[in-house]
């Protein structure tokens, strides 16, 4: 199996992270109080650092759990021996759980200006 199979998903992940960073910082600046905007920026970068540690922990955990299994290490140095697809299924499962958590938070969130949601804000501007 060629390592070039990873290019599309890594390119898509890079693009999505770039757009997410911009939107997240803009959201923080609009929703945080005026005197807490520097804390908003620092919490964003602290979250990035924490997510890097969690990613490293996840890779270490998968190595430790799958090294002694019958199928072998999922993240082996040789892509032909490894089970990289299983690792991506775990990542996809975590992404689905994260999306569900996001939907819950988005439903309960109240914007700073008091509007209930972006859909209601859009209908108010149209009417």
Low-confidence stretches: none
As for the number of domains, it is 1
Kindly state the number of beta strands. Answer: 0
Structural class: mainly alpha
Q: Largest beta sheet, briefly?
A: none
Sum up the overall morphology in one term: elongated
Proportion of strand residues: under 5%
Q: Give the % helix.
A: over 70%
Subcellular location: Membrane
Main location: membrane
Transmembrane segments: 42-65, 86-109
Keywords: Membrane, Transmembrane, Transmembrane helix
Description:
The chain has 127 residues and is an all-alpha fold. The chain has one domain (3-126). 71% of the residues lie in helices and 0% in strands. The chain is built from four helices and no strands. α1 (7-31) runs antiparallel to α2. The longest helix is centred in the middle third of the chain and has 31 residues, at 37-67. It is elongated, with a radius of gyration of 20 Å. It starts with 6 loop residues before the first helix and ends with a helix.
């Amino acid at each position: 199996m060629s390592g070039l199979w990873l290019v599309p998903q890594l390119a898509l992940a890079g693009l999505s992270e770039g757009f997410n960073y911009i939107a997240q910082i803009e959201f923080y600046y609009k929703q945080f109080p005026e005197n807490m905007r520097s804390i908003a920026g620092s919490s964003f970068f602290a979250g990035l650092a924490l997510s890097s540690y969690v990613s490293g922990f996840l890779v270490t955990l998968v190595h430790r759990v799958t090294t002694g299994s019958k199928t072998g290490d999922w993240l082996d140095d040789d892509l032909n021996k490894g089970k990289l697809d299983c690792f991506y299924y775990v990542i996809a499962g975590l992404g689905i759980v994260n999306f569900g958590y996001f939907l819950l938070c988005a439903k309960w969130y109240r914007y700073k200006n008091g509007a209930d949601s972006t859909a209601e804000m859009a209908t108010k501007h149209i009417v």
